[in-house]
Write a structure and sequence with these properties.
The protein has six helices and 36 strands. The chain has a domain of about 80 residues. It is α+β, with helices and mostly antiparallel strands. About 30% of the residues are buried. It starts with 6 loop residues before the first strand and ends with a helix.
Length: about 575
């Protein structure tokens, strides 16, 4: 049986419609386009069989299998929509308001039975953050945060609170995906000098800190983002502060923590200073990718021991996206970057393509793992609204431009159950497209008029780092390096990189005068002043000899030198002889 064709929902100032995905790429005629000018929100169900939207007048639910209207509700102010995992309940949220006469508010979170169309529960939920209750995969357990504590319901009976988890002040939570047993991650911010902490629990074992599966405390956390892996064995916690007190970053300060359900926890060590732009789990739950560091940013894959597996080097990127099957990873630079994408085969760590989607504000993988949509949406960017559908090899298959004054607000792929689309063999050859991807012409740097007729000298603001495999490789029968040896190797490489940034002039200033006299007692610089070319060669040779003398001092003090530094010392005799020949020749 052939896999289904995913739909792409498009919402904007001209309403909402559905586009048939590749290879059709035409508007779906079975869905009646809603031309309401105030279509605020839409959502697909978890299995993709239902779509709900609010057009500013009604909330409608349509079955995309037989295209029948399932539900219609008079709730024009609805701003958020969500389906329960088994399509039993439709959760709707409206902004909380109070009456001018009484000063009292009304419940703004409503839960509707999709089959009967009845409201089974109305609740108060003032904040949009964490507005929607969280269900387990089988809907046997549901939880929500109420007055800084967790309330639990079972089998969609919202009239009875079966269990509670009360801590000092729970401000965020994340329910684990997948089947039972259900696990819960909760975040409690620090107060009065006490650290913030994240704890993992297994429902309904809430006896206290001792009953927690794991606990991780940390400082410098105004807010956190908690990410479960698909197998619910570990959580990644991005702790962020609004302001970086050191003044090094406009984005504040971030740290990344790893917490496993077996009690293990660690701080993920990132080898480059700067913000953490993005963190994403691989669908296999065994690895995760982090994009971090001041531009050009690094991207690195880590394993469950928080050891680096592969380093993608540096580049203009701030986001990472795994394909649903986990076999392809896209690193991209959107927002204030130029939209460059790097498409990687993460099984062989080979670069597949490097397309560019300029001015994009949105990216999403198609459930088939073959196609991608990028979009420029309002209000993030009000110029050049539209979307493009790509093949991962870099070919553009479909382009839609929205003509002003119309605006594009959102695009979203239809969702599917896991396993609906099998993993396909990766191809490196670009497929044919209606709109082939055109590489933008590189822009030349500005040069003042006085320098335009002179040769261009190459200069880089940042040193680029190439991709590298971080796994210990056994070559020529050698044993793999131990953890200690790897740690020492990393330290040596870091010191070496730091030395390379030091200017040669600063290096020469550190050489003492007695050394200079001892090394070069018989050479006269005056002799080389007759021929400018000879003088230049003599000067360069003296610089090299002074640098060699400093390396010899470091070696004498017991410092272990790198291979290339030892090779420089071995060239000393040849350099002395060359210098002597030059001066005697004059």
């Amino acid at each position: 049986m052939a896999p289904p064709i995913p739909l792409l929902a498009v919402r904007g100032s001209e309403g909402i419609y559905l586009l048939n995905g590749p290879p059709c790429l035409t508007e779906n005629e079975r869905f009646t386009r809603d031309t309401g000018k105030s279509c605020k929100v839409f959502a697909f169900s978890k299995d993709g069989t239902l779509i709900a939207w609010c057009n500013g007048e009604k909330v409608k639910v349509v079955d995309v299998v037989d295209w029948k209207l399932v539900l219609s509700l008079d709730l024009p102010k609805t701003a958020c929509v969500e389906f329960s995992p088994k399509n039993t309940i439709l959760a709707l949220w409206q902004p909380y308001t109070t009456s001018k006469d009484t000063g009292q508010g009304e419940p703004n979170l409503s839960l509707w039975d999709i089959k009967s169309g009845e409201c089974i529960k109305s609740l108060f939920q003032k904040k949009m953050q964490c507005w929607c209750p969280s269900w387990t995969e089988d809907e046997s357990i549901c939880t929500r945060n109420v007055n800084n504590e967790m309330h639990f319901f079972e089998n969609n009976d919202f009239g009875t609170i079966v269990n509670k988890l009360h801590l000092q002040k729970i401000t965020d939570f994340a329910l684990s995906p997948g089947p039972l047993p259900c696990k819960l991650a909760v975040y409690v911010p620090g107060n009065k000098g006490a650290p913030s902490f994240v704890r993992l629990y297994e429902y309904p074992k809430f006896g206290g800190p001792q009953s927690a599966l794991a606990n991780k405390s940390f400082f410098k956390a105004d807010k956190v983002t908690m990410l479960w892996n698909k197998k619910a064995t570990a959580v990644l916690v991005i702790a962020s502060t609004e302001v970086d007190k050191s003044g090094a970053s406009y984005y504040g300060e971030q740290t990344l923590h790893y917490i496993a359900t077996n009690g293990e926890s660690a701080v993920v060590q990132l080898p480059k200073n700067g913000p953490i732009y993005d963190v994403i789990w691989s669908p296999n739950s065994l690895e995760f990718c982090v994009v971090f560091g001041f531009m050009p940013a690094k991207a690195t894959i880590f394993n469950l021991k928080c050891d680096p597996v592969f380093d993608f080097g540096t580049g203009p990127r701030n986001a990472a996206y795994y394909s649903p099957q986990g076999h392809i990873l896209v690193l991209a630079g959107f927002g204030n970057l130029r939209g460059q994408m790097e498409v990687w085969d993460v099984k062989k760590y080979n670069l597949i393509s490097k397309p560019q989607a300029s001015d994009s504000t949105y990216f999403s993988w198609c459930p088939d793992g073959e196609h991608i949509v990028t979009a420029t949406c309002s209000p993030r960017l009000r110029v050049g609204n539209g979307y493009k559908i790509w093949h991962y090899t870099g070919s553009i298959l479909h382009t839609c431009s929205i003509s002003p004054p119309a605006e594009l607000w959102e695009v979203c792929w239809q969702t599917f159950c896991e396993g609906a689309f099998p993993e396909r063999t990766i191809t490196y050859q670009p497929i044919a497209g209606d709109n082939p991807s055109v590489e933008p012409k590189p822009t030349q740097a500005y040069r003042p008029p006085a320098l335009r007729d002179k040769p261009v000298t190459s200069s880089k603001l940042h040193e680029e780092e190439p991709p590298q495999n971080m796994k210990p490789q056994a070559a020529g029968g050698e044993k793999p390096l131990s953890k200690t040896a790897l740690k020492n190797q990393k330290k040596r490489e870091a010191k070496k990189a730091a030395k390379q940034e030091v200017k040669i002039d600063g290096l020469l200033e550190t050489v003492s005068k007695p050394v200079e006299k001892e090394v070069l007692p018989s050479f006269s610089s005056a002799a080389s002043s007759k021929d400018p070319e000879t003088e230049k060669k003599v000067k360069n040779l003296k610089k090299k000899l002074k640098a060699i003398e400093q390396l010899k001092e470091q070696q004498a003090s017991g410092k272990q030198l790198e291979k290339n530094q030892i090779e420089k010392i071995q060239k000393e005799a040849a350099l002395l002889q060359e210098l002597e020949d030059l001066e005697l020749g004059d």
